[in-house]
Structure formats: C-alpha cells, structure tokens
Specification:
The protein is an alpha+beta fold. The chain folds into 2 domains: about 160 residues, FAD/NAD(P)-binding domain (3-Layer(bba) Sandwich); about 140 residues, D-Amino Acid Oxidase, Chain A, domain 2 (2-Layer Sandwich), CATH 3.30.9. It contains 7 helices and 22 strands. The strands form 4 sheets. Strands 7, 8, 9, 15, 16, 17, 18, 19 and 20 form a 9-stranded mixed beta sheet that branches. Strands 1, 2, 11, 12, 13, 14, 21 and 22 form an 8-stranded mixed beta sheet that branches. α2 packs across α7. The longest helix is centred in the first third of the chain and has 19 residues. The chain starts with a strand and ends in a 14-residue tail after the last helix. The model has no long low-confidence stretch (mean pLDDT about 95). The structure holds flavin-adenine dinucleotide. Flavin-adenine dinucleotide binds next to α1, β2, β3, β15 and β20. The site of flavin-adenine dinucleotide (FAD) has 45 residues, from α1, β2, β3, β15 and β20.
C-alpha cells in the first residue's frame, strides 16, 4: 500500500533536522532518510555559534537576524523534543595586541557591535590561567549546541510523528512525475536533499557549487570550570559535565582523506597552548567535512527541470547559526511561496 505524505527529506545533519522541525511545526507529514553512521560534519561539530568571527573579529553576516532567530528556534526545539542541547554562554576572545584592544574599544561604541559586546577586559580576565596580557572581549548571544543530542532528539520526534528510515537513499529508486515523487511505497509532493558534502554524488545536484572543507577537532580533558567559551585562535567548547572539551578546528580545502592527522593535532595543540597557562590532556581526535560555497552563503531552491526536487545545502563552517533561519525561509517558500533571498538562492549560480 502506498503512503502519501508531504515531504521526503534526505539527510539528517543540521540542515535536514532543521527542515524536519520546521515542517513538523507546520503539521506536515514527513519521511526522513539518513545514514547517521556516515555523518562526518554535524555529528562531530563543536556546535559553536558566535556573532563575531574570523581572525579580524568581524560581525558575522546577517547576525542581527540570525542570532535572535536561532535562540528562539533551539529553545522551542528543546520544548518540542523534551531534550536539552542548547547552551547559550558568554564567549571570551583574548586580544592579541594593544592595537586589537584599541580597535575594540572603538568598535564597542558602534551600534552594529554594541548588541554583541558584553564587556571589554583591559587586564587578564582570569588571573594567570590564560595568556591574555592585553585583556580580551566578552561577547554575548553566543554559545553552543550539543549536536548529537539535538540530532537524536529531532530524529526521535520525526519517528514519533512521521517516519525515520536509517538507510542509504538510492537515487535510482526515485520516481519523479509532474505532481509528485515516489520512493519505495512512499509518495510525496516533494523531496528535499540535505546531504551535506555528499551532494557531490547526487544524480540531480552533483553540479551544485558545494566545495569540501575538511576539519579536525581534538577532545581534551582540562581543569576549567568557568562558565565561558574560550576562543583565541582555536575555540574550547564544553562537551559534557566531566571536564571534557572540544577544541577546533582546522581548515583544509579539497581534502577528503578519511583520517585524522598528526599535522592537525600538532596545529591545534600549539594554538591552544599559546593562550592557556593550564595543562590539558588530549583524549581524542575527529575529522569531518564541511559543505561550503565560494561566497560562504547557503544554497536553497529547486532543480531547474523539476520543482519536485528541492535542495538545502552550503552551510559551510556555520551550520548551527545558518540552519534555523534558512530552514524557515525554505519551508515558507515550500508552503506559502514566500520568496527565497537572492543571496542564498541556488539560481545565483549558473
Ligand atoms: C571539524 C568541524 C567542526 C565544526 N564546528 C562547527 C561549529 O562549531 N559550529 C558550526 O556552526 N558549524 C560547525 N561545523 C560545520 C557544520 O558541521 C556544518 O555546517 C553542518 O554540519 C552541515 O550540515 P549538513 O546537514 O548540511 O551536512 P551533514 O552534517 O554532512 O549531514 C548530511 C547527512 O546526509 C546523510 N546522507 C547523505 N547522503 C545520503 C544518502 N544517499 N542516503 C542517506 N543519507 C545520506 C549523511 O549521512 C548525513 O547524515 C564544523 C564542521 C567540522 C567538519
């Protein structure tokens, strides 16, 4: 017997899980198909969200819209799933020089930054624990998501309200017609591909401009109990209550080698040691592949030959920040024909 539903979603990383939540909130009937054991981005991400990023500490793109929305989205997701994974927390960025300190004294008076600056420390903020002789910047509206509990909570919700299949989606088994798609015994009005970097082997979207950016992280044990995320060249984000933290990350373009490397470990240890004056023990290392785009903006839209085939990808280095807002945009486009911003539309690439 055929099950008739609204949407099939392929992929349950941050992109797929966020779309699934949006569609469940609209009371849509959905099927999610995912191979969690092959997830090499969302499940190893530190889950950081941070309104001021990059080596030059600039306000991240669309921060005034993305950050209020993500706070609402993840708080609601905790209520809907009954699980805890959202951890807003202040972030501390040590200044590397007096010039950086002066720069931020100026910037903090700027209305664009005021919303995100909690306070500026002109002296070391934690006694002798850190190497922050020039003080540093305390930022607000940042924090982290424990991504594995988030993804697992959403998959449980999907399974209780719809269908969640843990298996590989096979392109060859999808039938596409003018009004619907059909996969095995399930007929849906559309299918949404949220496959991260694995879109490169998708039959319809392999030419989408997704570039791979490998990253590695360390897991460390350290005696640090301050309620603040450290971010000084590398970040240090709490993983659990046992004093374990994730440290990241490295960035290597066009690399798909499925292994952790000594080179990445040495880079992360060196950067972390440069701003910590307390000892730490490395207890693990992970690798993953980010799906990026050349303009660092997501990709939303449908296939030029069939609007039944929908695409949500390109979350790059900021999946936690981008997925909530743009999954909302995508679901409004799907359900109410609301526009997709030109900046993120798949059609911006020929
Ligand atoms: C080292 C590292 C650290 C990071 N840290 C952060 C961070 O701190 N903050 C942040 O915001 N972002 C971070 N990111 C980036 C973030 O992880 C990505 O932006 C995000 O995970 C991308 O999500 P996605 O859902 O598009 O892709 P993915 O997480 O790759 O999910 C795609 C899913 O689709 C499934 N899939 C694909 N093809 C098929 C198929 N044929 N059948 C079934 N299932 C399929 C895969 O198994 C997978 O589960 C980090 C990434 C890395 C690598």
């Amino acid at each position: 017997m055929t099950d008739t539903i609204d949407y099939i979603i392929v992929g349950h990383g941050l992109a797929g899980a966020s779309v699934a939540l949006q569609l469940l909130k609209l009371e849509k009937r959905i099927l999610v198909i995912d191979e969690p054991e092959n997830n090499r981005a969302s499940r190893i991400a530190a889950g950081l969200f941070n309104p001021v990023t990059g080596q030059n500490a600039v306000r991240t793109w669309m921060a005034d819209k993305l950050f209020p929305y993500l706070h609402k989205f993840y708080s609601e997701a905790e209520v809907l799933t009954g699980q805890k994974f959202f951890h807003p927390a202040p972030m501390y960025k040590p200044f590397g020089s007096v010039a950086a300190q002066n720069d931020w004294m100026g910037k903090s008076a700027d209305a664009d930054y005021q919303m995100f600056v909690e306070r500026i420390a002109l002296q070391p903020a934690f006694g002798s624990l850190l190497n922050d002789v020039h003080g540093g910047l305390f930022l607000k509206h940042g924090g982290f998501i424990n991504t594995i509990p988030f993804l697992d909570a959403v998959s449980a919700l999907v399974a209780s309200r719809g269908m969640f299949w843990k298996e590989r989606f096979d392109d060859e088994r999808l039938k596409i017609s003018a009004d619907f798609v059909e996969y095995n015994h399930v007929k849906a009005s559309r299918i949404i591909f949220c496959q991260g970097e694995r879109t490169t082997s998708n039959k319809w979207f392999s030419r989408a401009p997704v570039r791979v950016l490998k990253g590695e992280t360390l897991r460390i044990k350290i005696d640090w109990d301050k309620d603040v995320i450290l971010n000084g060249g590398v970040y240090m984000v709490p993983e659990n209550a046992k004093g374990e933290f994730r440290v990241g990350a490295t960035y290597k373009h066009n690399d798909r080698t499925p292994v952790v490397t000594e080179e990445a470990r040495a880079e992360l240890v060196e950067k972390l040691s440069a701003f910590l004056n307390i000892p730490f023990e490395v207890i693990g290392q992970d690798w993953g592949i980010r799906p990026t785009t050349t303009d660092r903006k997501p990709l939303l839209g449908c296939h030029r030959e069939s609007e039944r085939l929908v695409f949500f990808n390109g979350l790059g280095t900021k999946g936690v920040t981008l997925a909530p807002y743009f999954s909302d945009m995508l679901s409004r486009w799907l359900e109410y024909s609301a526009p997709i911003d030109k900046e993120v539309a798949l059609t911006r690439y020929k």
